[in-house]
Design brief:
Length: 726
C-alpha cells in the first residue's frame, strides 16, 4: 500500500496499534452483576426509600399518578446519597432538543453553607425541575431569545443513572424540555404525550373485549443500530468525514461488498474488543444490549438491545450512540452513524421494532392461541395497517433528513414508498376477511372472527423481505426506513399517535355497533375489518420493494412516493397531520410548525456544509494533487521530446481535461453557494436542486482523477484503506 505521508502515517498507526487498557475481566465481574449497577433502579429505590415514599414513586412510574413535592424531596435526597457514594460530584438534567442529539447541563451538588464551607445539596425541586440556558437550541421560532429560558422536567418513567468519566462521575436525570409557555422544545415530551394517547384509546378496545384490569398499555421499541467503524487516523485525514459525517469524495474500491464475505463473518479482534467494552458500559447503565454482528458492508456492524418501553428505549438508544462513539475513540477508531458514509457501499439504518402491550396481557400484536386472543390481535393489527396507509406521508416525513435521502428514494433499501410487508400467511388471513363478508357465498374461505383460530404465523417471517420499509415480523412491526443517525423519538411519537387515531376510530365504530352487547362484538369486528381491508389493503405489499415494477404498481395504487426530504418534511405539517396531533394533544399547531421549520433548516444547513466542504477539498487538496501530477507528466513529455522520442500524450491530455473540468465545476458550485438566502423552504429547495447536483459534478471529476493521479500524490485516504484496514 502506498500513499502520501499522512496516509502512510495512518496506516502505520493502524499496524502498530496496541490496546491501551487491560483486557476486560468478565470473570471477575460477571455481566449479571454489572447490569444496571449505575442505575437508580427500582431495586435501589426499594432498598433506600421509606416504604410509603417507594410506593408513591412506583405509582407515578407505573400508573402515571402525580408526584408530590414531599416525595420528590425524599427521593432526591436518597438519589444524591447514592450518587455521591458512587463518586458523583455533579448532577445533570439530560434532555433531547430538536437537533436529535442529547444535551446535558451539569450542576455541582455543592452549595456554600455560610461558614465559608460547603454542603452537598440536592432538593426535590432541583430533581424535578432545571433551567438550562438552552437558548441556542433550534426551536423553529417558538421561543425568541429574549425569553430564552426553557425548563427541564424530570421524566419519572426513565430512570436516573450515573455516567462515568475518567475524572469523575455525574448523576444524570432524564428530563423533558419545555418552554415556560408549556410548549415542547424537545423530542421526549411529544413521545410521552403520544404514548399516553395510545394507552387511552387501546383501553377502549380492551374494554370491549372485557380485558380491562387497569394495567397501562405501553408502546414497546427495540431499535437495531447499524454503524461503521474505521481507524481514527484515516478519519482525521478526511475533512469530509470529520465535518459532514460522510465522504464527499472517493472512487469505488476494486473490491467492495459484492462478495458478501463480511456479512456475519468473524469480527476483527480490535473491533470485537471495542464492542465488548461498549456493551459493558451500556450494561452498567441498564441498557439491555443483546446482539452484535457484522453487517453487509465492509467495516459495518450492528448492535441491538432487547426491547423496552418506547420512552426508555429512546433514551437508551441515545446513550447507545454516545457510548459507541466514546468507546470507539478509546480503541483508536471512529464510529460513524451517518446513513451513507461511503458511496457505492451499503448505508446504515436503524430498524425500529414497534409494538404495544400491557403487563397483564402481554404483547397485543402477538397472535394468540385462542379465538378471543386472535380477534383482539387482528383488531390491533388492522389498526396499524389502517394507520400506516392513512398517514403514510407523515411516516415518510419523520424519517426525512439529508442523510437518509441517500437510502430512501435512492437505489437502496428501503424505498421511499411506505408500504407494509405482512408475510404470506397473515396476508392470506386478511384476504379471507376482505372477501368473506358475504358469508353464505364464500363460506369456505371465510375466517370467522372469534370462532376460528389463526394458522400458526411464522415468527421473523418478515426477515425474508428486507426491501420493505415497514414489516410485520411475527409479533411486532419493524420500521426499517429509520436512519442510523436519527433519534427514534419522533418516529415512535408518530407511530403511537397514528395508531392511537386508528384505534380510536375502530373503538368508536365497535362501541356503536355493539351498543353494549358483547355478543355482537365478533360480527361487528368481522364487518369492520373487511371495510378496513377494502379501504386500506393497498398499503400491503409483500414483493420486491426495490423493483421498478413496484414503483409503477404503487403509483397505480395511489401510494405516495416522496423521494426527497424537501418533498417529505412539509408533510409533517400537512392539514391532516396538524389535526391529528392536535386531536390527541401530542403537538399543538405551533409545535408542529416549529418542527417543520427546524427540520427544513437542518436539511438546508447539512447540505450547505457539504457543499462548502466539497468546494474547499476540491480546491485545496484535490486540485493541487492533480496539477502536481499534471506537471510531472508534462515534464516527462518535455524530456522525452528533448531526447527525440515520439510518444503519445494520452494521460497528460486526460489529466489536463479533468483538471479543467474540476476547476470549472468548482466555480459552478461556488456560484450556487453564493446565492441570496430565502425562507427555510426555499433554502432547502435550493440545496436539493442546485447544491447537490453541483456537488455531484465536482465529485465525478475528482473521483475519476483519483483513478489516474499517482497514488503517492493523492491526499485523501482511499475507500480501500478506510474500509479494509482494521
Ligand atoms: P430480527 O432479528 O428478526 O429483526 P429479533 O427477535 O432479533 O428479530 O428482534 C429485533 C428487535 O426487536 C430486538 O430489539 C427485539 O427486542 C425487538 N422486539 C422483540 N419483540 C418486541 C416487541 N414486542 N416490541 C418491540 N420490539 C420488540
Ligand atoms: Mg431486524
Amino acid at each position: 500500500m502506498s500513499g502520501n505521508k499522512a496516509r502512510l502515517d495512518a496506516i502505520s498507526a493502524v499496524i502498530n496499534y496496541k490496546p491501551i487498557s487491560e483486557p476486560l475481566n468478565f470473570a471477575e465481574t460477571p455481566t449479571k452483576e454489572l447490569f444496571a449497577s449505575n442505575v437508580f433502579s427500582t431495586a435501589v429505590m426499594k432498598q433506600r426509600l421509606p416504604k410509603p415514599v417507594y410506593k408513591s414513586i412506583m405509582a407515578t412510574i407505573q400508573k402515571g399518578a402525580p408526584l408530590d413535592t414531599s416525595t420528590a424531596d425524599v427521593v432526591a435526597s436518597a438519589m444524591k446519597d447514592w450518587a455521591i457514594e458512587k463518586g458523583a460530584t455533579h448532577y445533570a438534567h439530560v434532555f433531547y432538543p430538536l437537533t436529535g442529539l442529547t444535551a446535558e447541563k451539569h450542576d455541582s451538588f455543592l452549595s456554600p453553607n455560610g461558614d465559608g464551607l460547603a454542603i452537598a445539596e440536592f432538593s426535590g425541586e432541583q430533581l424535578i425541575q432545571g433551567e438550562p440556558d438552552g437558548s441556542s437550541f433550534p426551536t423553529g421560532g417558538i421561543r425568541p431569545t429574549f425569553e430564552a429560558r426553557g425548563y427541564t422536567a424530570w421524566d419519572v418513567t426513565s430512570l436516573a443513572y450515573i455516567l462515568e468519566n475518567p475524572n469523575g462521575t455525574t448523576l444524570c436525570i432524564p428530563t423533558a424540555f419545555v418552554s415556560w409557555t408549556g410548549e415542547a422544545l424537545d423530542k421526549k415530551t411529544p413521545l410521552l404525550r403520544a404514548m399516553k394517547a395510545l394507552n387511552t384509546q387501546a383501553q377502549r378496545i380492551l374494554k370491549l373485549f372485557g380485558d380491562t384490569d387497569g394495567s397501562l398499555v405501553t408502546s414497546t421499541a427495540g431499535p437495531e443500530q447499524e454503524y461503521f467503524l474505521i481507524d481514527r487516523n484515516f478519519f482525521l485525514a478526511r475533512p469530509d468525514l470529520m465535518t459532514a459525517g460522510r465522504t464527499l469524495f472517493g472512487a469505488a474500491p476494486a473490491k467492495g461488498q459484492e462478495f458478501d464475505d463480511h456479512y456475519f463473518g468473524a469480527i476483527p479482534e480490535r473491533v470485537l474488543a471495542c464492542m465488548m467494552e461498549t456493551e459493558r458500559e451500556l450494561y452498567k447503565l441498564g441498557v439491555p444490549v443483546k446482539t452484535r454482528h457484522n453487517e453487509v458492508a465492509p467495516g459495518q456492524y450492528e448492535v441491538a438491545p432487547v426491547f423496552e418501553n418506547a420512552n426508555v428505549a429512546t433514551d437508551h438508544q441515545q446513550l447507545l450512540m454516545i457510548m459507541l462513539k466514546r468507546v470507539a475513540e478509546k480503541y483508536g477508531m471512529v464510529c460513524i452513524t451517518h446513513e451513507k458514509p461511503f458511496a457505492g457501499v451499503n448505508g446504515s439504518g436503524k430498524h425500529v421494532n414497534f409494538s404495544f402491550g400491557s403487563a397483564s396481557l402481554g404483547n397485543l400484536l402477538e397472535p394468540g392461541d385462542t379465538p378471543h386472543e386472535n380477534a383482539r390481535f387482528l383488531v390491533f393489527c388492522a389498526a396499524v395497517i389502517r394507520a400506516v396507509d392513512k398517514y403514510a406521508p407523515l411516516l415518510r416525513s419523520v424519517i426525512a433528513h439529508a442523510g437518509n435521502d441517500h437510502r430512501l428514494g435512492a437505489n437502496e433499501a428501503p424505498p421511499a414508498i411506505i408500504s407494509i410487508f405482512l408475510g404470506d400467511q397473515l396476508t392470506e388471513v386478511f384476504e379471507q376477511i376482505k372477501t368473506g363478508g358475504a358469508k353464505s357465498s364464500k363460506a369456505k374461505s371465510t375466517l370467522n372472527i372469534g370462532v376460528d383460530t389463526l394458522p400458526p404465523l411464522p415468527l421473523h417471517s418478515g426477515d425474508r423481505n428486507r426491501t420493505s420499509p415497514f414489516a410485520f415480523t411475527g409479533n411486532k412491526f419493524e420500521f426499517r426506513a429509520v436512519g442510523s443517525s436519527q433519534s427514534i423519538a419522533t418516529p415512535l411519537m408518530a407511530l403511537n399517535t397514528i395508531v392511537a387515531e386508528s384505534i380510536d376510530a375502530i373503538a368508536t365504530r365497535l362501541e356503536a355497533d355493539t351498543a353494549g352487547d358483547a355478543g355482537k362484538l365478533d360480527d361487528a369486528i368481522q364487518k369492520l375489518l373487511q371495510e378496513i381491508m377494502v379501504e386500506h389493503g393497498r398499503i400491503i405489499f409483500n414483493g420486491d420493494g426495490y423493483s421498478e415494477a413496484w414503483h409503477k404498481e404503487a403509483e397505480a395504487r395511489g401510494l405516495p412516493n416522496l423521494r426527497t426530504s424537501v418533498e417529505a418534511i412539509p408533510e409533517f405539517g400537512s392539514e391532516a397531520a396538524v389535526e391529528l396531533f392536535k386531536k390527541y394533544n401530542v403537538l399543538s399547531p405551533r409545535e408542529v410548525e416549529s418542527r417543520v421549520e427546524v427540520k427544513l433548516e437542518q436539511y438546508a444547513m447539512a447540505i450547505a456544509v457539504e457543499a462548502k466542504l466539497t468546494a474547499k477539498i476540491a480546491k485545496t487538496m484535490i486540485f493541487p494533487a492533480a496539477i502536481r501530477y499534471q506537471s510531472e507528466l508534462a515534464t516527462t513529455c518535455a524530456n522525452l521530446k528533448a531526447v527525440g522520442y515520439s510518444f503519445d500524450t494520452n494521460t497528460l491530455d486526460r489529466v489536463t481535461e479533468l483538471v479543467r473540468c474540476l476547476q470549472d465545476s468548482t466555480v459552478e458550485l461556488d456560484m450556487a453557494l453564493a446565492h441570496e438566502g430565502g425562507s427555510v423552504f426555499e433554502e432547502a429547495e435550493h440545496a436539493l436542486k442546485k447544491l447537490i447536483p453541483a456537488m455531484n459534478v465536482v465529485r465525478e471529476y475528482a473521483d475519476t482523477l483519483e483513478t489516474i493521479v499517482a497514488d503517492d500524490l493523492w491526499p485523501l485516504p482511499s475507500y480501500q484503506e478506510m474500509l479494509f484496514i482494521k
